[in-house]
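step=encode ok
step=design start
structure_in=
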């Protein structure tokens, strides 16, 4: 029995794929051990979204080899796709497996181990396990049966992205949009619900594009943004409706959505499905139209605001969360001020604030007027302060109200034991008790705060 240590970097899609890879290894009899211990095999699921992510991926690969020089070090995923030449020249990496080959981890690994043990190392392995994702490729079917979390499970419904934002390398690392068949998604979801998971989170690289590659299965073609959005809404909505019908499933949470997919009809259709959580992550990146244009985002700030207002008209107090990049090339003080004013106008539950990080290979990396790091840090601090204010204001709206909580785990604070979990809006809540309420959904009254991020209920 060989021991395997796993480490994941990057997004929720990477985390999902790492869970599937761990599941496959366990089914084949491999022993999973912590990453900071000696292992026969180290597998690092890499990230390449920024130059910093590339560096972290290399650091983890080198750390594994240093830990056990005799171990097989395997690089998997996005950095393999974009940093292939660097990996081939890196002496600490024994095997590289690109995206859309993760499902083949076991046969690739065992072939490598066999040749290594017979004294005939495979010199072409890195080349044969990295696919060309620049053109059409099929969706890589992987099925998750269990995950490290005990109450919610992520389900990947699509891969790839066709948006080509000027700062983003992901279309080159993940390829073009390819959607998973609804029947396969349903089988996985039903299995996870039977395994005890009460909440599923729909995830993917760009889930708003789900189904856009199913052209041949619809009558006629779709032309222009309006018809394309309607087309994509239909596929995603039909999938959500099918998931909603699974007996025993209590919650459906949506991953990040493209703002343009939100229409009144789409929002009303979701509102008619009570299992869908009123928690919408609409990626913004900037509240300034000039900056959005340089980013190659496909909407204006005013359009984004209209989408938020639509959701708030259809839902009572939905949680609206977003991503914002500060210090994008050319972002002047005036442009930043426009973004700040726009964020104040919208009023988010949570904002993930990122300092722009140059990514070689993207159009933004070649743009003039790169913003100094000190300016990025200052702008980030300003928006993080605003985020704390808005987040606290949103949580305060629940005080005195009965809220439904899916309890997850016990924590200790000030000598007391609390069960913590999340509402449908993904507001964290804590209930003082010694009883194990994990994976139970209960309604409690919000009476105060345990800390600045957690509502206290009784």
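sequence_out=
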């Amino acid at each position: 029995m060989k021991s395997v240590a796993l480490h994941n970097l990057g997004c929720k899609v990477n985390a999902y794929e790492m869970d599937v890879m761990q599941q496959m290894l366990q089914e084949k009899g491999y022993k999973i051990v912590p990453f900071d211990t000696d292992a026969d095999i180290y597998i690092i699921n890499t990230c390449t979204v920024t130059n910093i992510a590339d560096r972290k991926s290399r650091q983890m690969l080198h750390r594994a080899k240093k830990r056990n020089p005799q171990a097989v070090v395997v690089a998997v995923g996005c950095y393999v796709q974009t940093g292939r030449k660097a990996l081939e020249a890196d002496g600490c990496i024994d095997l590289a497996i690109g995206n859309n080959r993760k499902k083949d981890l076991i046969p690739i690994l065992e072939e490598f181990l066999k040749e290594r043990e017979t004294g005939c190392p495979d010199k072409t392995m890195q080349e044969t396990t990295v696919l060309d994702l620049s053109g059409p490729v099929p969706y890589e079917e992987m099925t998750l049966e269990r995950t490290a979390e005990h109450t919610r499970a992520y389900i990947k419904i699509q891969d790839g992205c066709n948006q080509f934002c000027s700062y983003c390398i992901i279309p080159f690392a993940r390829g073009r949009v390819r959607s998973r068949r609804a029947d396969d998604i349903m089988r996985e979801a039903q299995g996870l619900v039977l395994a005890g998971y009460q909440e599923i989170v729909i995830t993917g690289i760009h889930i708003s594009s789900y189904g856009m590659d199913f052209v041949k299965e619809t009558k006629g073609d779709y032309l222009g943004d309006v018809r394309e959005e309607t087309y994509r809404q239909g596929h995603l909505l039909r999938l959500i409706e099918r998931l909603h019908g699974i007996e025993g499933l209590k919650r459906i949470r949506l991953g990040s959505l493209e703002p343009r997919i939100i229409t009144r009809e789409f929002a009303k259709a979701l509102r008619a499905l009570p299992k869908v959580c009123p928690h919408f992550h609409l990626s913004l990146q900037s509240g300034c139209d000039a900056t959005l244009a340089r980013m190659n985002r496909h909407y204006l700030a005013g359009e984004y605001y209209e989408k938020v207002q639509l959701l708030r008209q259809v839902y009572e107090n939905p949680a609206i969360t977003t991503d914002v990049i500060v210090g994008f090339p050319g972002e002047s003080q005036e442009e930043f001020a426009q973004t700040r004013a726009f964020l104040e106008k919208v009023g988010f539950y949570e904002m993930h604030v990122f300092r722009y990080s140059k990514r070689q290979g993207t159009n933004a990396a070649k743009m003039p007027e790169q913003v100094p790091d000190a300016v990025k840090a200052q702008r980030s601090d300003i928006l993080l302060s605003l985020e704390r204010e808005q987040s606290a204001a949103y949580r305060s709206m629940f005080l005195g109200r009965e809220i439904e909580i899916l309890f997850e785990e016990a924590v200790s604070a000030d000598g007391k034991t609390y069960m913590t979990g999340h509402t449908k809006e993904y507001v964290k809540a804590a209930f003082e008790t010694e009883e194990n309420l994990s994976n139970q959904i209960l309604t409690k009254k919000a009476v105060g705060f345990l800390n600045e991020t957690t509502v206290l209920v009784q």
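step=design ok
step=annotate ok -> Confidence is low (pLDDT under 50) at residues 219-226.
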